[in-house]
Design goal:
Layout: E1 11-13, E2 18-20, H1 21-29, H2 40-54, H3 58-79, H4 91-124, H5 151-161, H6 182-196, E3 198-200, H7 201-204, H8 211-226, E4 230-233, E5 242-245, E6 252-253
Parallel strand pairs: 4-6
Antiparallel strand pairs: 1-2, 3-5, 4-5
Helix pairs in contact: 1-4, 2-3, 3-4, 6-8
Length: 254
């Protein structure tokens, strides 16, 4: 099978530069050629002629469109009129140019890596696995394994493997605190306050057996206060907190 000759890289022929398109990017990236002197329309016409002559190549066409769009942005940014700030060039314009230069250098780096990968693929495609015989040290017969068990011993091992072991159960009841409902605590407090009208928080919790019940009743009082069912009174700082049943708008008296 006769392989076709590789296609030559795309070259441009301009008044300020003649040569490969990639080299043009390098000159612009190194500020050795002003982008305003490059006729992008002529470059586009030459690439169209190049593509028609050698057939449509999706990869080369895509790469050209990316680079051409970058050059167009760069040229547009270069030709924008600068602001009258007293400086030679506008700071924002310089930042835009640096960003576009970085994009050009990034494109060149990706293209170089792609070329290196293509070369590695072409080189390894001609590699063939080496056909060799088994080394002499591996041709010997394998060593006989002696288990030291007769048929009865193997049967005992098989019976032991079939025994279903029930996993040990760890009792975790002691690590769980009893569930206390804040809603039930609110109902209990409502009944107590409706009956007596007002009471201290200490009195409302005197029948609680565990600390978690006291916490639940405190949280229930906060919700009742938020809903406007009770109000709080405290005569002295850090004194007993009195809860007054008040189904109207909530208020705090200190």
């Amino acid at each position: 099978m006769v392989e076709s000759a590789p296609r030559a890289d795309f070259e441009v022929h301009l008044g300020v530069y003649d040569g490969p398109f990639d080299a043009l990017l390098g000159l612009i990236g190194k500020h050795r050629l002003d982008i305003t002197e490059v006729a992008l329309a002529q470059v586009t016409d030459e690439f169209i002629a190049y593509a028609r002559a050698g057939g449509f190549d999706l990869e080369q066409t895509t790469a050209f469109l990316v680079v051409a769009a970058t050059l167009l942005d760069l040229k547009a940014a270069r030709l924008l009129p600068g602001l009258d700030t007293g400086d030679d060039e506008d700071l924002a314009l310089l930042e835009a140019r640096d960003l576009l230069f970085a994009r050009l250098l990034q494109y060149r780096a990706f293209k170089q890596v792609a070329g290196w990968i293509a070369g590695q693929i072409a080189t390894t495609a001609r590699w063939l696995p080496r056909q060799v015989a088994l080394p002499p040290e591996l041709r010997t017969s394998p060593t006989t394994v002696e288990l030291g068990l007769d048929a009865a011993g193997l049967a005992a091992l098989a019976a032991l493997a079939e025994v279903v072991r029930v996993p040990d159960r760890v009792d975790t009841d002691h690590v769980h605190a009893p569930r206390v409902s804040v809603r039930e605590a609110a109902a209990t407090l409502s009944e107590m306050l409706i009956a007596v009208g007002s009471a201290s928080f200490r009195t409302l919790c005197q029948d609680c057996e565990e600390l978690v019940e006291v916490v639940a009743r405190f949280l229930a009082l906060l919700e009742m206060f938020r809903d406007g069912h009770v109000r709080f009174e405290q005569v002295a700082p850090l004194g007993d907190l009195h809860v007054v049943w008040s189904p109207g708008p909530s208020a705090v008296a200190t």
